[in-house]
Amino acid sequence: MVTHLGATRDRGYHGYQQSLRSRRGPSRMSRDGPPHLDLASSEDEDPPSRTPQKLAMPMGIKKAVRQLQHMQVPVSSKRTRHSRALKHFYAEAKETLAILIPWRKAIHKIGGHFGGGVQSYFVFLRFLVVLNFLSFLLIAGFVLIPSVVLSSPNNTPSIPNGTNITGKELCMKYDHSPEVLPVFYTFFLDLLSGTGFMEYTYLFYGYYSNTVAESKGVSYNVPLAYLLTASFYFLFCLVCIILRMGNVVRVLVTTGSGGERGYSARVFTDWDYGLQGDRATGLKQNTIRYRLQVDLEEDRIRLRAASLSPGQTVGLYALRALLNLVVIALIIAAFFGIAEATSFSQREAVKWTGVVGLLLEFLPSIVITASNFVVPFLCDQIARLEKLSPSTTVIVALLRAVFLRLVSLGVLLFTLWSQITCSGKADDTDCKICRYNSAQYQCWESRVGQEMYKLTLFDFLTTMVLLVLVEFPRRLLVDHCSCKLTRWVGRQEFLVPPNVLALVYGQTVVWTGALFCPLLPLINTIKFFIIFHCKKATLFQNCRPAIKSFRSTSSNFFFCLVLLFGWILSTVVLIYSMAEIHPSFGCGPFRFSPTMWSVIQASIDNLTKTTQDFFNIIGSLAFCVPLFLLSCVVLSYVAALASVYGKSVAILREQIKQDGRDKQFLVKQIKDLTRILGVPKHEEDQYDPGASWGDHHASASPPQYLPNVHSFPSASHY
């Protein structure tokens, strides 16, 4: 018996196969002569009654079969050749266009060094840079360039026929001529505040004329183009946000929302065997390591929450409710401070000049920025007591901070509108003649644009000051001072939630002021471009990787969601400004019009009868109500279809888990049977998938940095 086993070991795999065949009877090999490789099927063709469980083929034979298959030249039709050529062209075009994506290598490097969470911030920032640049091209093509090319030398406003301006002489007063610059600092103050020489330029609403420009037989309706461009600008941004959210949701569905894959699937499927070079492999290693860190952290918190007793669970939720009440109180206090600062600034700024006047003009921006720093910092300290997972903590921090920032902007606008419209009191002395406070706001649209301009500029200056005067000195102290305090403080950690909220806040300010400051998207493009490079430099020079990572896929969705909230707020401002507030009589393309939207109706009245009937039908209830009902039906169908697909995906995932458990059970049964039958150890290993994987796939194994797979729970456990 020993001699027979030794001979079997010497013969190796083929000898072992021959010993199995000798036990089960004559095989095809013994009947037909030398072995034959059937490329059509690799299964044994013996009768089922005499065929045991199929054994795995060695890696050498698998490679030989694959080479033979590649050597065969299939007979393909003309349609197949065209399909392959089209796929090849599509792949080449996609690879070529990938070169045009800005900062692709830089973002890939950031993801390898600091994880997917920090990388998602820079991807989001790149999206906003491209969005603002395309928005500027839209505004420049339909408003700015035609106004520059077709503008008349005197730029005299035209009074529409039938417009009664009797008694409106005070409303038409608009003193926009800048004073003589006695010193240079006045020029600098005007540049910061948007007043003086900058107020009557293409930067603000008040400079654009209400005339229909004509040049060489070509006419251009500037007011209509101004209004339609602003509307299409908002629709364009909405489409871009929805498309991006769709891509993120598609990734979420494909990856199973992140943590459901389990450690085994991540270890065996995340590595890219096509990587070349130490730099690329190192970045990929760091990326997988951060993902495993996120999975381990969230599983640890999930297991700790599951181990709580009912009393501990009730106490935890009661603590969270109390902490949320504290957060709400802080946010309400910030809103009250912003409203008071805005009222004081609008009331006292006109009484002062110089630096004091500049500080009073920037007082709302200062209070908003201070609130956006202090309140989120206190909320982050409170969040440590809530004991949430890293991804949930990021989402909660985003929702709290976006509520603070966006509603604080809404409080600022509400305070301005209350002063412009005299709190809605039409019979008030200041608003009785012009239907707006013309004594304090001769051109209220430019004043709102100046506020948004100052908010954008102050936000940019604050970011630069923090980078230069806080993060860089902190890094120098940590690197060159060895005291206990500096070691305890450490380098700056790049916190994703406040940085993302700063981007959302800046973009919301731009959307809010785009109607009153048309060049604000260009300013924001330059601002985000500079911030990207400064943030990237300070990230590698001054920051350290985050102690607690979070899942970037789900966070990307919430980034787009809070951006959508900012868009909704800006759309409310746009609609209210167009439909409710009377335009200024002394400036802008909508002077002498009852509302901005009335320009659309006036333009439709100048069209042919058939075109007017078409627009009247589209705007009637007989068309809008059925369209709304049809949209509800389509949305309900899509929602039901998505629910069915979601349930199908969940069922398939459960089936995959069950198949994994069945395979483990069968392998265990095979081991038990072979142990009972007395099969030698080396023959028993042929049934062990783990041993086969280790023997045949050693050449394609991931790097040694990955954690030991056997130390993690099985994939079916998750």
UniProtKB/TrEMBL annotation:
Source species of the chain: Denticeps clupeoides
Start and end residues of each TMC domain: 443-552
Coiled coil residues, start to end: none
InterPro entries: TMC (IPR038900), TMC_dom (IPR012496)
Transmembrane portions of the chain: 123-145, 183-203, 224-245, 317-338, 350-374, 394-417, 452-470, 509-534, 555-576, 617-645
UniProt keyword annotation of Transmembrane helix present: yes
Protein name as catalogued: Transmembrane channel-like protein
Annotated Pfam families: TMC
Family membership noted in the UniProt record: Belongs to the TMC family.
